[in-house]
Amino acid sequence: MREIQAGEHDGRHQACRDADWLAGISEDDVYRRLVALNLAASSANLLPAIASAQPPGAGLTLRTAGDDAVALNPDRFKVGQEAGIGSNTLAFGADVTDTGRSLLFANPHWYQLGVDRFYQLQLTIPGRLNVSGVSIMGAPMVLMGFNDNIAWAHTVSTASRFTVYALALSPDDPTVYIKDGEPHAMTAVTVEVPVKQGDGSLQTVTRTLYESEYGPMINPAVLNPGVSWNTTQAFTLRDINLENTRSFQNFFAFDHARSLQDFYDAITEFVGIPWVNTTAIGRDDDRALYSDITAVPNVPDAVLQGCAVPGFSAPLLEAGVVLLGGTNSACDWQDDPDSRQPGAFGPGNLPHLFRRDYVANMNDSYWLTNADNPITGFARIIGQEDYRQSLRSRLGHTLVEDRFAGADGLAGSQVSSENLRQIVVNSRNLSAELLKDEVLSAVCGAPSGTEAQACQVLTAWDNRANLDSVGAHIWTALFEGGDDYDGLRDIENLWATPFDAQDPVHTPRGLNSAVTGQVQTAFSAAVAAVVDSGVALDAEVGEYQKYLKPETDIPQFGGEGSEGYFTVLRNTYMHVVDFPEGEPVRAFTFLTHGVSDDPASDYYGSYTQAYSQKNWHRVPFTREQIEDARISTLELSE
Q: Taking the complete model, does pTM exceed 0.90, yes or no?
């Protein structure tokens, strides 16, 4: 950075090299960054609600049971506050691989642009540490990767990381709440923030915010526009990860782990992972591990039910927000004998599974980690059980099922590094596999014009979104719908066979014949939308779908998980790792958006182009491998 500011490296980093904000960082800046990453599934998504929480002059009252006004977008309380942030992972034990040794696939769906994207690195301190993988900008450790004995992956967990408490206020003071019959004064905190003005100058804005014993007060309008902090009630937040100081100790322990048991022991020792599931394999260990042993508020189901706010808690829970009454200490978070922090579940009450066949997670709960051996008996705040899985989750398990049955068009029935690298980018579409034939039978009896052409294209379509696939965009328009029309997924009672918890991978399925009129309407609207878009009905995927990388025109395969793609458009880092007997760790990776975000770099688009061509990168790990693969060396000293 100092060299850039001194005028060196001419032409590089034009987007920021002369920016006023470009400056060095301090140790405190690093810690702030780590805290912010800790809160990505909790307080970070509620900052406007915290910053705007003010005591009333007057306000509206809490809506009561029977009022259906609560309508929340559940994505706003998730990591990233938008659909698409998530991950896939598959981990295989020795019983099902061609080598008789474990094998792991990591596939986070993360940011492709901006400061939160991944960067790929290897950290080596001779004799002490040698670990490769990725981290998020600003985090000085490998967050997902492998060393010579361990490989691991993360997926975003369904567990809630915070609860909201409804407080009853003193009639004399809206900053005093009543708990167990006793008054408790909120703490006033003065916050000063420099705010840039229209003329470029900075002006300090001062605001007084408030905290309860649980944490910051929040503006409840984020939960329901008709609810406010008024003279009788207020709302406050408790965040497990504001109190979790162990997370990056936990990640460092992963980086240093020397066996799968060592890795698992670190999970249970710290219980510091803030908001992701973990899968892992280890050298000379026949097992694959799944774990959601993470920082979770200790709210057993009895507390969740007994402390619910009537008419309000239930719809919020559907949106992923736990609301509890704050008038009674019986509704406080509980403690377990093995809790690693006050108010957290201990590892004995959190789900994990070791298997010799496979474990998987595609952002549904722990329940269907292994389709043949569901995990049950855990608190609702961690995740649901016996519930309908996403199409992406179902396809993940189907890919495994087809591999074990030798039904995926590849040789044999065991899993190998080679065939796994083909399977995870094959761009299959489960909604098409489940519905297309019946839909076409319903709508293509006597079509005309562009609808006739669409019928021909979809009939010939291979139900995939590879670069040369023809017809994928028509199905997307039909299944997903548009701004002004409903797609198949919006049709109530679409499926002929409903969800069955005893057969969750294969249900729901089939087209309900009673909805064929709605299907025809959706088909006509979808075809018209594609025609209006200007993309030809018979266009190949590679003609219209490009990777999100500025100043490039690189075609991208895959589709959206909501449509039933396992191979999604938001793929970022990917690795397939195993430990061949007597050899160093073997890892193949993609960093789909590339290491550099500078268009002036000679390597700006090379990794993305390799991904487009499904050309996996064999990662050099040992010093000898690195020397053999080295292009250049840059030595830094301070």
A: yes
d(CA 118, CA 108) in angstroms, rounded, equals: 10
Give, in degrees to the nearest 5, the angle at Cα 97 between 91 and 103. 35
Distance CA 288, CA 426 (A): 23
The Cβ of residue 48 has, within 10 Å, a number of other Cβ atoms equal to: 12
Strand ranges (E), 548-591: 573-578, 586-591
Tell which residue, 307, 320, 272, has the closest CA to residue 293. 272
**CA distances for 513 relative to 62, 84, 459, 517, angstroms:** 44, 31, 19, 9
Nearest to 156 by CA among 393, 503, 379, 425: 393
Per residue, what are the HEC states of 395-419? HHHHHHHHHHCCCCCCCCCCECHHH
553 CB neighbour count, 10 Å cutoff: 8
pLDDT in tens, 159-173: 999 999 999 999 999
Please tell me the least confidently modeled range out of 9-18, 426-435, 488-497. Answer: 9-18
The answer to whether 546 and 554 have CB atoms below 8 angstroms apart is yes
The dihedral sign for the CA sequence 389, 394, 396, 397: positive
**Residues present in the chain in total:** 638
Beta bridge partners of residue 203, listed in sequence order: 195
Report the candidate in 498, 42, 582, 28 with the shortest Cα–Cα distance to residue 274.
42
